[in-house]
Specification:
two-stranded antiparallel sheet; 17% strand; globular; TIM Barrel; alpha/beta; 320 residues; 43% helix
């Protein structure tokens, strides 16, 4: 049976509002939740950027849901600090906190003033960070010198058990790479043919018996026109090729790119419909593709209506 979770978008909403939405989502029947981890939003229209790790502690205490986030260790975050943060959450809320790791985006990492590495270098750095995290969670004293430097680090508060570590991937190449080390895959919804390639790359590279999670961007509103308008206003900055999105530095640059994106360009990247039965069909298609966790991100500002309507008319139809 698939897990349907709520995605909390720190770029779009203030942390106190997101905390309330997470509580409402649990009451409505969502099984789990995840949140983004950004230093800056994707564009000035979104206008928020709360600190994920502070929020996660509050959200885990305020609900009984499991939570996760997608993190990029190695530049803005030292991997030992990520290991400590996850271990602390797992010690307080055993088994309810997971983290997915990716190679990051210039938008968030440039604040350190360090050189932004190439994709190949970021991948190598990420894989070193994975080794560091796992060793620290095992209670080892870690000294490491490579793309990241760790000097005699040891966690004195260990997790109850090793936290689940997912690999974040958007392309088949990255999906195949993360299958080497990840407990599971997390990716974003894409047109079906592209998404199947990501799934196949992960499975064929060693991930065939591991979990797969999907973040589904959708726009739900009383009318299709309103849903499309909200998607274009809030999420058009995010549909460009991942290689482009990883290199932009500021929300202003994302907004400049977005000026060339038309509403029709969002098709396949954002699920736009005012009809909950259509969303049910789309979600079932993704479950049939092999995804056992779906995290629903309604980019429309009206989260309350989305949570209540999907809790009543979508979740029961999808998960039974």
């Amino acid at each position: 049976m698939a897990i349907l979770g709520y995605h909390a978008s720190h770029e779009q909403f203030a942390p106190r509002d997101l905390l309330r939405y997470a509580q409402v989502a649990e009451s409505a029947g969502f099984d789990a939740a995840m949140c983004s981890d950004h230093f800056a939003p994707w564009g000035e229209r979104q206008g928020n950027s709360g600190f994920a790790w502070s929020w996660l502690g509050a959200a885990l205490a305020a609900t009984s849901l499991p939570f996760g986030t997608v993190n990029a260790p190695g530049q803005r975050y030292h991997p030992a600090i990520v290991a400590q943060a996850v271990a602390t959450l797992d010690q307080m809320f055993p088994g309810r906190c997971w983290v997915a790791l990716g190679s990051g985006q210039h938008l968030n990492e440039h604040i350190t003033g360090e050189r932004w590495p190439s994709k190949a270098e970021r991948t190598a750095r990420l894989e070193e960070c994975v080794e560091v995290l796992r060793a620290l969670w095992d209670g080892e004293t870690v000294t490491h010198r490579g793309w990241v430097i760790v000097d005699e680090a040891r966690l004195h508060t260990l997790p109850e058990s090793p936290p689940r570590l997912l690999g974040a991937a958007i392309t088949p190449t990255t999906a195949g790479r993360v299958a080497r080390w990840a407990d599971g895959l997390i990716t974003i919804d894409q047109p079906a043919d592209q998404l199947r390639q990501v799934v196949e790359a992960f499975r064929s590279s060693g991930g065939q018996h591991r979990s797969m999670a999907l973040q589904v961007q959708l726009s739900y509103a009383p009318t299709d026109d309103e849903a499309l308008g909200a998607a274009h206003d809030q999420w058009r900055t995010n549909i460009a090729d991942s290689a482009v999105l990883a290199e932009l530095r500021t929300p202003e640059q994302f907004d400049a790119l977005a000026a060339f994106i038309r509403p029709d360009d969002l098709e396949g990247d954002v699920r736009v419909s005012s009809d909950t039965s259509v969303h049910v069909e789309w979600l079932r298609e993704r479950i049939d593709m092999g995804f056992d966790e779906l995290y629903l991100h309604n980019v429309h500002p009206d989260q309350q209506r989305f949570i209540e309507d999907f809790g009543e008319r979508v979740l029961p139809e999808v998960v039974g």
